Amino acid sequence: MNLTLHVWRQTGAAAAGRFERYDARDVSEHMSFLEMLDVVNGRLIEEGKDPIAFEHDCREGICGSCGMVINGRPHGPVPRVTACQLHMRSFTDGDQIWIEPWRARGFPVLKDLVVDRSAFDRVIEAGGYVSIRTGAAPDANAVPIPKRDAERAMDAAACIGCGACVAACPNGSAMLFTAAKVAHLGALPQGQPERYSRVRYMLAQHDDEGFGSCTNHGNCEAACPKGISIDCIAQLNRDAIRAALGKGTEYAGAAGGGA
Amino acid sequence: MELRAKVPSGPIQEKWDKHRFEMKLVNPANKRKYEIIVVGTGLAGASAAATLGELGYRVKVFTYHDSSRRAHSIAAQGGINAAKNYQNDGDSVFRLFYDTVKGGDFRAREANVYRLAQISLDIIDQCVAQGVPFAREYGGLLANRSFGGAQVSRTFYARGQTGQQLLLGAYQALARQVAEGTVTLYPRTEMLDVIVVEGQARGIVVRNLVTGAISAHMAHAVALGTGGYSNAFFLSTNAKACNATAIWRAYRRGAGLANPCFTQIHPTCIPQAGDYQSKLTLMSESLRNDGRIWVPARAGDARRPNDIPEGERDYYLERIYPSFGNLTPRDVASRRAKELVDKGQGVGPERNGVYLDFRDAIQRLGQQTIAERYGNLFDMYLQITGENPYEVPMRIYPAPHYTMGGLWVDYNLMSTLPGLFVIGEANFSDHGANRLGASALMQGLADGYFILPYTIGDYLAQTKFAAVPEDHVAGRSAVAEAEARTTRLLGINGTRTVDAFHRQLGRLLWEYCGMERTADGLNQALREIPRLRDAFWADVRVPGAGQDLNQELEKAGRVADFLEFAEVMCLDALRRDESCGGHFRKEHQTPDGEARRDDEQFAHAAVWEYTGDGTPPKRHVEPLTFEYVHLAQRSYK
Ligand SMILES: Cc1cc2nc3c(=O)[nH]c(=O)nc-3n(C[C@H](O)[C@H](O)[C@H](O)COP(=O)(O)OP(=O)(O)OC[C@H]3O[C@@H](n4cnc5c(N)ncnc54)[C@H](O)[C@@H]3O)c2cc1C
Ligand code: FES
């Protein structure tokens, strides 16, 4: 098939960007979307032009590196599929495809489709962990965990940190990302001691990073390639209210997270 | 180059305890005075850096990813081994040790493997305490599955995302140390060289991947957890950026490179679909628990799989290996698949695969159970191939996946370059000539959480250090060399892309140094690689500038190193004139096609020493002795 691409090109963080038009010819339906871009880039290089910068690594939908808005949707048209797992059989001959970076205050563009997502790491550093030292753990089967809780924790822990939720949100909020970690650790006995301090520190960091607030649009859940549920946000809100009422203040400082 | 393995004396069960007692400790107040560089934030690097930070050292961590959570370890699917014997099926530390030595075809150091099996118990405890959501049974206890090369169920897993969950556990432990101020992270920063001062590794040269600035970082010791080199083959199951630069540059600075020809070809990957293909996708080996592998009994049978009656299918692993069946080790399963495809019994549009069929398991257990066990893998397969594995069998074929070779390390995980430690897949590790499934995650975390933090302390406590300022002359000259190389790459301005050269190298290695190797083929490769390298330096086109985010330049540097690395890989394969594990020399096989070792001549690790450009590297050996697991022909029948 033959396609026309309109790709956001921007030389650096401070530069102004614009869409450039490229023809993608003889695209096989078995190619992945990123392989299609590889072919376009190969041609650009041979013509002496600068290839399109985009981030990717595992190409298996798990590392969370790839992230681009395709025809207005983070990761493109297929629900629950990352850009790297998207295949060209989802497009038809003659399609016009618009490709842009994540757009959000918390994710400044570095070049073309590459954005700076380091804010996510800082949200985790604020408290997205269990404070356990290496070598201090009891036997793994000492505390049985109901299968239901373990599954719930795993559902939330499946987040790949790609940032599609932020890109999809009209407020540029990272609440689904933050809530996924809060829900993961909150579902397990190991996460209980720091449950309320965690939510307080992580939320404060979230706001400091310039992410917007959550007003329940739900676009994040629809855009999430891993199907993380907005129930996580409800859980975060419940924990945040309890934290505001003073729960968990006994742990303040001990977690070591900087608010 | 002297290879002193430094294995402690005494019975194997007591070596590690004894050694831990004998190691020198760094006084807690002094730890803050030591700076340690860790390169890599995979399971090995992240767990090491977090633990060293907890102990009070000042740690700097480098990764080329935008976030330490994205290391290639994230992609591991199937699981992690531990000798917990929670299933009460006869597992023990000794059995895990035994399986690993035997699975590695007797080319690993016994003492290291035993320690690994011992530590496996602590790893699971540690991960559960961090909140890793391992799969559980209804009673709330941890669940297990089986992997190839073992007859017990000792693999712990988190759906099909075990690597992800273990890495996030380590990443979160690291995040906690960043918040505490003990660890400083340098993401989007690629290491280009090791800095050696008075015979000790004292720093690294790095390039900031956003600004392009090249600079030096100094420390008292350096640990590399930079992963494997399967991407030398271009097409592999590894993430696209995985590369050999860190270990190759360390080798050029004096670290011995061990067994580079020990590479693992994984039997269950999705076959290649076209020549634009950028990587191969693994379908976890855990699928072999429930899937049955077969090909049509008649070559050229073009019927759809579900139309081929039972009697006309060859379930060849079950037929040849009745006791291990579909769970034979990887090297054996891969070779049998290749033979059948070569004989014309391959399936799929390119006739380049074999079937992995879940029909019987779905009938027996129901679709629901299969979906619970492998749902995400089935979805991934459907997305990539457009075929639904609940209805038609998967098509699979072997692909480069893991590298057992790497920098040589002693019992303390230190290379032949003092002060340079190597952990995880980057070292020549505990897997001998073939790694068993679910043992890489175990090794990465054993090295990072439980071994390196002790042994590096012993090194620091025993060593005298000269004061080395950040602008030390050794650092300045290494920076200048790296800058010159970058300038040279950008200045060639030839006609072919970096990928074009990389693909060509990959095809060459797959042909001559892949699943089957011969002296003729390897000699051919050794003639072609230098030619390809010359062509690269004469005709590659690297667009853009050095002082910028330039992904082609990043790739070019890595491919330039692969083009040197590949030569030692082939040389090692040529000089190891025997078959063992994943290294299969066609000249050396038993009448039924199994690898035939030559223990008289090759019961050793081969370690290569760099002697300068244009002169052949020097081969050294570390003899291996087997006191606890007796040398024997492997049999999985
Ligand atoms: C698809 C797949 C599935 C797998 N499944 C399993 C499984 O189920 N069980 C199992 O036990 N094993 C599995 N393995 C193997 C296992 O995942 C790896 O061996 C292991 O994760 C390697 O960990 P590591 O920490 O050594 O390196 P990696 O995770 O590869 O990390 C390397 C790190 O080094 C950094 N780095 C490298 N070079 C440089 C440089 N020059 N400068 C800066 N940073 C650098 C990278 O950024 C990265 O952070 C699988 C492998 C693959 C490919
Ligand atoms: S490249 Fe890893 S998730 Fe897409």
Briefly note the structural class of the backbone of chain B.
Answer: alpha+beta
Side-by-side strand order of the widest sheet of chain A: 2-1-5-3-4
Proportion of beta-strand residues of chain B:
5-15%
**N-to-C SSE string of chain A, H for helix and E for strand:** EEHEEEEEHHHHHHH
Features:
heterodimer, A: 259 residues, alpha+beta, Ubiquitin-like (UB roll), Fumarate Reductase Iron-sulfur Protein, Chain B, domain 2, five-stranded mixed β-sheet, two-stranded antiparallel ribbon, 11% strand, B: 637 residues, FAD/NAD(P)-binding domain, Flavocytochrome C3, Chain A, domain 1, Methane Monooxygenase Hydroxylase, Chain G, domain 1, 3 domains, five-stranded parallel β-sheet, five-stranded antiparallel β-sheet, 17 helices, 14% strand, binds flavin-adenine dinucleotide, binds FE2/S2 (inorganic) cluster
Overview of the molecule:
The complex is a heterodimer of chains A (259) and B (637). Helices cover 32% and strands 11% of the residues of chain A. Chain A is of the alpha+beta class. In chain A, helix 2 (118-125) packs antiparallel against helix 6 (195-208), helix 3 runs antiparallel to helix 5 and helix 5 (175-186) packs antiparallel against helix 6. Chain A has helices spanning 33-46, 118-125, 147-157, 164-168, 175-186, 195-208, 219-223, 231-244; strands at residues 3-9, 18-24, 69-70, 73-74, 96-100, 109-111, 114-115. Chain B has helices spanning 15-22, 28-31, 43-55, 93-103, 110-130, 162-180, 245-252, 316-320, 330-342, 359-365, 367-385, 440-462, 473-492, 498-513, 519-539, 551-575, 599-602, and strands at residues 35-39, 58-62, 80-81, 155-156, 183-186, 189-197, 200-208, 214-218, 221-224, 257-258, 263-269, 292-296, 313-314, 354-357, 394-403, 406-407, 420-422, 604-609, 618-623. Chain B contains 17 helices and 19 strands. At the A-B interface, helix 1, helix 2 and helix 3 of A face helix 3, helix 5, helix 6, helix 11 and helix 12 of B. The complex binds flavin-adenine dinucleotide and FE2/S2 (inorganic) cluster. Flavin-adenine dinucleotide binds next to helix 3, helix 6, strand 6, helix 7 and strand 15 of chain B.
